[in-house]
Design brief:
The chain has about 475 residues and is of the alpha/beta class. The chain folds into two domains: about 1-210, YjeF N-terminal domain (Rossmann fold, 3-Layer(aba) Sandwich); about 215-480, Ribokinase (UDP-N-acetylmuramoyl-L-alanine:D-glutamate ligase). The chain is about 40% helix and about 15% strand. The chain contains 18 helices and 19 strands. It has a nine-stranded mixed sheet, sandwiched between helices. The protein has an eight-stranded parallel sheet with strand order 4-3-2-5-6-7-8-19, with helices on both faces. The protein has a two-stranded antiparallel sheet with strand order 1-9. A hairpin with a 4-residue loop joins strand 16 (about 385) and strand 17 (about 390-395). Helix 17 crosses helix 18. It is elongated.
């Protein structure tokens, strides 16, 4: 797991280091790592034209010291100073001593740049960029240059990922010490590009992270593997109560996600039995309700179920059992009218809303997706999986994971039904609700990427990609779903 820390924790860790390190050592380490990453992305450093966008404070100082290093390696480096009398004095002196130049900010100077380094605002920045800074950020996006952000793209809230107005759009963000929430949640993540974490010695002083990002090794460790004495029952049986006369497709997709998941058997209890029998002969179909479906270790309820009295009765019946239950789609709409059905449960519950469903359950998500998900999980006593290109998962106890494996192409009808069946199958194998949610989201995200390859997909495409993705995660363990590297 890779930790994610808020600004307050990062500042406290920096202060602890500053009390023991020689003066300026922390900034020199950051600048060295930053310059090294800039060299990697340039097509040759010697003669390259590098523009530094410099605001007031230490973020600009990091960029200036890095610019001095690039100058000594033969780059032509110019700093554009947004607030000339408040630029970092030591960094500016180092740049000039190395042969770099400084100018008042002028967006026209970005024309012809090979690399633009964003040192306007650091992790302490909040709210919209000032007009002159926003103009530079926009000009950088149109310049055709390689764009590198220092610690966090300017205009992105480090604690929430919120963007107000214009923000710097980086192809690479070189962040210092650790990940920040704004780099892993949207819309900040969309501005960050590839995130490269440079170790500057903070980790021993950071304390517990706000959230964690699982990688393929974590997911591979969680996933169940059948042993030689296992049978379909010992591997777990998942019940699926989904679909209706109007929405039989939701039943096919949720049952399909379960069949291609990790449980040994799928039982279907719903109104789309004939369609399920025809498409998924492996599933055991009952014509009665969940109570007569037979033994199961976990249930999925809600996709395509409808929201009438009949559907509400099904949701209530499933939630009344003493087994882990995943609730999705129409089940969440019903649950928003009866939150006590979840709060009163003793067994684990996993809720998988998108933003609008979340709003009906727990109020608007707002800018801070991590805190909103944590708050809802604590209130409802359930694990919450808040869908999105960055999926945020919180346990009732407040442990948060962020999944970054997905793609925006997964925003297509039925994709969530596949996820519900897949995650429900993992619940049936005995995984905890937070693990089932995180592993399901990871596999689902990678399946979306595999099916998409940068283009439109259907939910059925995601379903078809699941077996290959599962084999990759189980077998290789040497690739991750997140574009993050560590020094």
């Amino acid at each position: 797991m890779r930790g994610v820390w808020r600004v307050e924790a990062v500042r406290a860790a920096e202060d602890a280091l500053l009390r023991t390190d020689p003066a300026g050592a922390l900034m020199r380490r950051a600048a060295a790592g930053l310059a090294n990453r800039c060299c990697r992305v340039l097509d040759g450093v010697y003669g390259a034209r590098v523009l530094l966008l410099i605001g007031a404070g230490n973020n600009g100082g990091d960029a200036l010291y890095a610019g001095a290093r690039l100058t000594r390696r033969g780059a032509r480096v110019d700093a554009l100073l947004l607030v000339p009398d408040r630029a970092h004095a030591g960094g500016l002196a180092a740049l000039r001593a190395a042969g770099g130049r400084a100018h008042p900010a002028d967006a026209a100077r970005l024309a012809g740049a090979d690399l633009v380094l964003d040192g306007i605002v650091g992790i302490g920045g909040t709210g919209a960029l000032r007009p002159a800074a926003a103009e530079l950020a926009s000009a950088a996006a149109e310049s055709g240059a390689v764009r590198v952000a220092v610690d966090i793209p300017s205009g992105v809230s480090a604690d929430t990922g919120a963007v107000t107005g214009t923000a710097f759009r980086a192809g690479l963000t070189v962040t210092f010490g650790c990940l920040k929430p704004g780099l892993v949640t949207y819309p900040g993540r969309a501005h960050a590009g590839v995130v490269d974490v440079v170790d500057i010695g903070l980790r021993p002083h950071l304390g517990e992270p706000t959230a964690s990002v699982p990688d393929i090794h974590d997911v591979a460790d969680w996933l169940p593997r059948p042993g030689p004495l296992d049978d379909k029952y010992t591997r777990g049986v998942v019940g699926v109560a989904s679909g209706s006369a109007d929405y039989s497709g939701a039943a096919l997709l949720s049952v399909g996600g379960a069949v291609r998941g990790f449980a040994g058997m799928v039982r279907y209890a719903g109104q789309a039995g004939d369609a399920v029998r025809a498409r998924w002969p492996e599933a055991v179909v009952t014509d009665g309700g969940p109570a007569t479906a037979g033994r199961a270790q976990a249930w999925v309820v809600g996709p395509g179920l409808g929201t009438d009295a009949r559907a509400a009765k099904v949701v209530r019946e499933v939630l009344a059992c003493d087994l882990p239950v995943l609730v999705d789609a129409d089940g969440l709409t019903i649950l928003a009218r009866h939150p006590e059905w979840v709060r009163d449960r003793q067994a684990e519950t996993l809720l998988t809303p998108h933003d609008r469903e979340f709003a009906r359950l727990a109020g608007a998500v707002g800018e801070d997706r991590i805190e909103a998900t944590r708050r809802a999980a604590a209130d409802l006593g359930a694990t919450i999986l808040l869908k999105g290109e960055s999926t945020v998962i919180s346990s009732p106890q407040g442990a948060v994971t962020v999944d970054m494996s997905g793609t925006a192409w997964l925003a297509t009808a039925g994709s969530g039904d596949v996820l519900s069946g897949l995650a429900g199958s993992l619940l049936a194998t005995g995984l905890s609700a937070p693990q089932a949610a995180a592993a399901g989201a990871f596999l689902h995200g990678l399946a979306g990427r595999l099916a998409s390859r940068g283009g439109p997909i259907s939910a059925a495409d995601v379903l078809d990609a699941l077996p290959e993705v599962a084999r990759t995660v189980l077998g290789s363990g040497d690739q991750g779903g997140m574009a993050v590297s560590r020094a």
